[in-house]
Write a structure and sequence with these properties.
105 residues, alpha/beta, Rossmann fold, Bact_response_regulator, Response regulator
Length: 105
């Protein structure tokens, strides 16, 4: 069974995503931030990551999410990532695409 890692600092967002994904047959694991997510990735086979881009209430830049993506790449983990944020920014989306160099609409 495919396992999806949901990374978000808001418990209600994680819960909503997990409930929806469980209903269609996916197993989910949750992490409240990048550090916890990296620990999970090092010990668990993950098929997909849902990643919030901001983890501090006063941060809307997406820098935390971009830093996580860089750390994920250094692990040579070839895991697809769907980024999400309440603070949508075209600039951050373009940085994500440039980082992976293979964005799909």
């Amino acid at each position: 069974m495919d396992t999806i890692l949901v990374i978000d600092d808001q418990a209600d967002v994680r819960m909503a995503a997990i409930v929806a994904l469980n209903q269609i047959g996916y197993q989910c694991i949750e992490a409240q931030g990048p550090e916890q997510a990296l620990e999970i990735i090092s010990s668990t086979a993950i098929s997909l990551i849902l990643l919030d881009m901001n983890f501090k209430l006063d941060t809307t830049s997406g820098a935390e999410g971009l830093r996580f993506l860089q750390q994920l790449q250094t692990l040579s983990a070839n895991i697809p990532v769907v980024v999400m944020t309440a603070w949508a920014s075209v600039d951050v989306a373009v940085k994500d695409c440039d980082f992976y160099n293979n964005c799909r609409p």
